[in-house]
Amino acid sequence: MAHSNSRAASGARLLGDDVQHLIVWYHVLRTQQAGATVVDLAVEAAGAGNVDDMTLQHTDGRREYWQVKASVNASTPLNEEWLFEKEKDKQSLFQRLYASWVQLSQDSGPRPNIVLATTKAIEATDQVLAARATTDARIVETLRHGTGSLAMARTRWADHLGVSEAELLEFLDRFEIRHAQSEKEWREKVRDAAIGARVRVDDSAIAVGVQCVRDWVKAPRQRFSPVDLSSIIDSLEIRSTDSTGLLVIQALEGNPRARFASHAIDWVVLLAGDEPRTRRQFSAPLLARPLVLRDLASSREQLRAAGVRTLEVDGPMRLPMWFAVGAHFGSTAGFTVGAQARDGMWWSSVSPNSQKDLAISSVQDPCDAVGRPWAVSVSFAVDIAEEVEIFLEESLPDVHHVRARVPHPGRAALSGLPHAQAVIFQLREELRVLRRQLKPPEVHLFLAMPAACALLLGHAWDRMPPTWTYWDMGEPGAYEAALLVAT
């Protein structure tokens, strides 16, 4: 039994070390990205009290002191009891963090920030932590304005520290909890940061970085500037030899990956609506359209100048924007693009299979369509042909409607990336043949497909007439023109 307890303790210690090392390596990679504000990073820093796992100094003088607490199970969730728990005559974790903050506040400059990073999840029934106002569990506003039971909790927390309520709130203004992020999730964050730092993202490269941090811990009290860290990364020989980058476009809401992307664009203010579900069109289309196209052209040139040729694209955005991004970073521009789909990453470099089961048809006589604009409805996720037809009858009565449909539109309509590529290329090639016959001056494109598929379709959409994409307004037969893509 003693042997079993020892193994459990060792497992907890190893997990704690792994999470701490991943967190440090993540911040090392962050220092290598454009716009990074960290000017000094230290591990097991001298004079940092109980918050010496990692310290960060920023250009504006801000200081962050990190304490990492990992857990191998969920038997003790993140709650007040865990923060206040005392072992024998030792101070509680919360008391130790406060004491360190008081000590570090004696230094000149702004008062430091204390960050507690833990794999534990907040207990849903905890009176204070569950009522937090923000996702990082900064509980200061919860306690500052709390009444009733929360006012009693404010007194209880102050009494636990042996300070006044004003002094408690002053500390909580500088206290954050980064909670419920597992070792796996920190590894994913490391991979994202590595893309922006032009460092390899494979497991072996991460292992090299983590081992480097372990070596620092064995020889503590070291401090590093971003230049120092760049030289260390070079010495580890883990710089990315390919030109992979991350492009994050925020249209429906923010995306935390934007902080460490190779390039990020924020278009949230361009769309009408108060929250993601209602953001379905531009609030001022005549102003927004040229701005979007200019941003895409600028990002393409910046990424090309940086040597990026393979590009992961992340949203959130609606299908017209996914298509436009794919078109601006198309194969003819020399880019390979990819995005996360339900079954993993979908890359434009993957070859199609032989499953070309897309049916392309029209209810009109093609002879009557010569020289007329096209409307192309593409039904993968759901059959939208009839709804598009209703819209066309009212808004674009002179267009020739071309319908493209897989046999059974729905969530499982595409068996995977090779199938998606097969129908994308089939659609493009058959439309090219029709174009030579019918000579349409422009195309109006209506999409119902996964976001990654819209990206890949845009990537392949060359040698086609100028193409208008359309917002789905969420009502039967309701569409609005979104963006004009010239290929």
Summarize the structure in words.
Strand 13, helix 12 and strand 14 form a beta-alpha-beta unit. The strands form 3 sheets. The chain has a 6-stranded mixed sheet. A 6-stranded mixed sheet has the order 12-14-13-15-16-17, with helices on both faces. The longest helix has 29 residues. It is elongated. The chain has 14 helices and 17 strands. The chain is α/β, with parallel strands linked by helices and 487 residues long. The chain has 2 domains: 177 residues, no CATH class; 242 residues, no CATH class. It starts with a helix and ends with a strand. The N terminus is likely disordered.
Structural class: alpha/beta
Low-pLDDT segments: 1-15
The tally of helices reads 14
Rg over alpha carbons: 27 Å
The percent range for strand residues is: 15-25%
**Largest beta sheet, briefly?**
6 strands, mixed
Q: What is the terminal separation in angstroms?
A: 70 Å
For the biggest β-sheet, the strand order reads 5-4-3-2-1-6
Q: Outline, from the CA principal axes? A: elongated
In total, the number of domains comes to 2
Percent of residues in helices comes to: 25-40%
The strand count comes to 17
Return the average pLDDT rounded to an integer.
90
